[in-house]
Specification:
- The longest helix is centred in the last third of the chain and has 20 residues.
- By secondary structure, the protein is an alpha/beta fold.
- 34% of the residues lie in helices and 15% in strands.
- Helix 6 packs across helix 8.
- The chain has two domains: 130 residues, 3-Layer(aba) Sandwich (Rossmann fold); 184 residues, NAD(P)-binding Rossmann-like Domain (Rossmann fold).
- It has a seven-stranded parallel sheet with strand order 8-7-6-9-10-11-12. A five-stranded parallel sheet has the order 2-1-3-4-5, sandwiched between helices.
- It is globular and about 65 Å long.
- The chain has twelve helices and twelve strands.
Length: 326
C-alpha cells in the first residue's frame, strides 16, 4: 500500500495538481490546527505530514510513528519543534532552493515600488487623482542585505546586474558563512553599524529564530539614514514593529516595505501603532513564495523528502534534525 500523507489545507491548495498526481503516496487534505491534525493522523493511520509555517509544539509528534516525516512546505522551520520530533524518532525536512527566485523577485518589487512611491501614486490614480510624485533611480544606490544566503545572493544578482546597484552583505560575526558571498557583492561585513549606515535600502533575509527576535529595534533603526527604506521579506519576528512605527512617524527613516509580520494575518502589536495607517509603508500579505513555480517546487520537494525517507535514503533528504539518525 502506498503511504498516506496528510497535507494541511492551505499548502494543499497552493499546489493541488502536484499533490493530486503524486504516485509514490496518497495525499489527503488535513486541518492545519495541531490538535485536529494529530487526531486526523491517528484516525487515518497516516504515515507522514506536510505542514505550513504555523507552530507545532505538542500532540502532532506523539501521533506519528517513529520514522515518519514531518515535511515543512517552505524554508523557515521555526514552527517545527525539532528536539521533540527527534525524541519521537521523526524526520523533519524543509524545502530549500525552490523558492529563492520567487522571494528575491518580490523583494526587488518592493524596493522598486518604494523608490517610485508606486502604491501612493497608483492609489491616487485609482481614486481619480493625478498626483505625480518625485521618485528616484536605483542605479548607483546601495542596498545592504542582512543575511547574504541563497535568497540574499539572488537579490544581489538582480540589484547588481539588473540595476547597477552597490550591494553590501552583513552576516553575524559568529556565522560560519563565508565573507565572500559572490561577485555581485561589493563587500560582506560583520560590522552592522557600517552596513546599515551606508544603505539606501536595508533588506532583511535572516531566519526567524529566537536569536533574531527584534533584530531590528529602536537602536538599530537609529543607525539607518533618514532617507533609507527597510524591506522585510524574512520573518515578522525579526522587526520590532512598534519601534519601526515610531521611526517612520518621526521621520528617522523614509519608509518600510513588509511582506511578513509578527502576527499573521497582520495585527498591530499596539493598536495605536498600526502600520497600515502610514503613507510611507508598503505592505503585502506574506506572498514572497506564493507563485505557481515556487508552490509546485515546494510541494515536489516536500514529497521527495518523504519518498527518500521511506526508502531509507536519508542522505538525500533536506534533513533538519540529523541527530534523529543516531
Amino acid at each position: 500500500m502506498p503511504p498516506l500523507i496528510l497535507v494541511t489545507e492551505p499548502e494543499y491548495r497552493r499546489a493541488e495538481s502536484v499533490f493530486d498526481s503524486w504516485t509514490f503516496g496518497r495525499c489527503v487534505i488535513a486541518p492545519s490546527d495541531e490538535e485536529a491534525l494529530a487526531r486526523a493522523v491517528k484516525d487515518s493511520g497516516a504515515h507522514h505530514v506536510v505542514v505550513g509555517g504555523q507552530p507545532y509544539r505538542g500532540p502532532l509528534y506523539a501521533s506519528l510513528a517513529r520514522g515518519s516525516v514531518v515535511a515543512r512546505f517552505g524554508v523557515g522551520h521555526e514552527g517545527i519543534d525539532k528536539p521533540q520530533a527527534t525524541t519521537c524518532g521523526l524526520l523533519c525536512t524543509n524545502t530549500p532552493y525552490v523558492l529563492d527566485q520567487s522571494v528575491a523577485e518580490l523583494t526587488f518589487l518592493l524596493i522598486a515600488g518604494a523608490a517610485r512611491h508606486l502604491p501612493t501614486i497608483a492609489g491616487a490614480m485609482r481614486d481619480g487623482s493625478w498626483a505625480p510624485k518625485l521618485g528616484s533611480e536605483l542605479s548607483g544606490k546601495t542596498v545592504t542585505i542582512v543575511g547574504p544566503g541563497r535568497i540574499g545572493r539572488a537579490v544581489a544578482r538582480i540589484a547588481k546586474r539588473g540595476y547597477d546597484m552597490r550591494v553590501i552583505g552583513y552576516r553575524r560575526p559568529e556565522s560560519t558563512s563565508p565573507l565572500d558571498a559572490g561577485e555581485d557583492f561589493a563587500s560582506v561585513t560583520t560590522d552592522l553599524p557600517a552596513a546599515l549606515g551606508e544603505a539606501d535600502f536595508v533588506v532583511l533575509l535572516i531566519p526567524g529564530v529566537r536569536e533574531n527576535a527584534h533584530f531590528i529595534n529602536r537602536e538599530r533603526l537609529a543607525l539607518m539614514r533618514p532617507h533609507a527604506w527597510l524591506v522585510n521579506t524574512a520573518r515578522g519576528i525579526v522587526v520590532d514593529e512598534n519601534a519601526l512605527y515610531d521611526a517612520l512617524v518621526e521621520g528617522r527613516i523614509a519608509g518600510a516595505a513588509m511582506d511578513v509580520f509578527d502576527r499573521e494575518p497582520y495585527q498591530p502589536a499596539d493598536p495605536s501603532r498600526d502600520l497600515r495607517t502610514l503613507p510611507n509603508v508598503v505592505l503585502t500579505p506574506h506572498v514572497g513564495s506564493n507563485t505557481p513555480e515556487a508552490n509546485g517546487g515546494m510541494a515536489r520537494r516536500a514529497l521527495q523528502n518523504i519518498e527518500f525517507g521511506e526508502r531509507g535514503e536519508f542522505g538525500r533528504m533536506d534533513l533538519l534534525n540529523p541527530d534523529v539518525l543516531r
